[in-house]
Amino acid sequence: MPTRTAYGGKRAVLTTMHGKGAVIVPLLQSRLGLTVEVNPGIDTDSLGTFTKEVARKKDMLETAIEKAHLGMTASRFSIGLASEGSFGPHPAIPFLAINREIIVLVDDERGIVVKEFVSSEDTNFSSLVVDAAIDITDFLNRAKFPRHAIVVSPNQSLDDRPTFKGIRERTVLNGLIRRCAEASSDGKALLQTDMRANFNPTRMKVIECCAHKLSQRILSLCPQCREAGWGIVDIERGLPCGFCDAPTALLRSEILGCVRCDHREVRARSDGLRVADQMYCSSCNP
Ligand SMILES: [Zn+2]
Ligand SMILES: [Zn+2]
Question: How remote is the CA of residue 78 from the centroid of ligand 2, in Å?
């Protein structure tokens, strides 16, 4: 067990209602020597849900930090962890969905927050409006049902209720579609993929990847002040066109930074690309 890391032998609390401890706890234990206890007793749904009964009021980072603090206060820990996810259309390819995950380590002893993000196109995020007569086999296959659960609600009702979550059984699903369609003013039911981590193994894998990146960042020390959590904090665009040297929108360099001091370092693209193809140049290709 690594004990010479900044977190070797320390204890933290992970606030989650949705079983994320299964992937986060063993990883941080084995890589950092950090003992992570799970606090499942806090209603994190009050901070926002995917099914929109409770809209998230703050951005992902603020929500994750707030969630970590809730667990730290309740469990009387000075180090806390929490994760937060979002789903939506890909910014460049509209018909493709994207899953963004963030995990934070909030350390009130050292007065730092270490955060890590992952974006993944590997997600089953989708929805479908149906009436009881429609064949939903294709949708269910794409949703990876029944390993991944479905949420059913009336398509049109004042508050989207009743909403049934975590459905993994076809006969139960069929019954709920009929019931929700009847409760809807347009006679249709809304099917949504259940994005809560413990009902969505594909999302759980993305969270695991994010936890891995977070542990890597915690192991990286600032070259200036030796604080844990050194890593990429920003990027610079403007990779020069290989033909005319004009700046393009492509990534030119990564900015590495510290969570404690002002130290920054600029690093060229890690894939070794130093000039952009002419096709990305607005001077050559107006
Ligand atoms: Zn050019
Ligand atoms: Zn530093």
Answer: 21
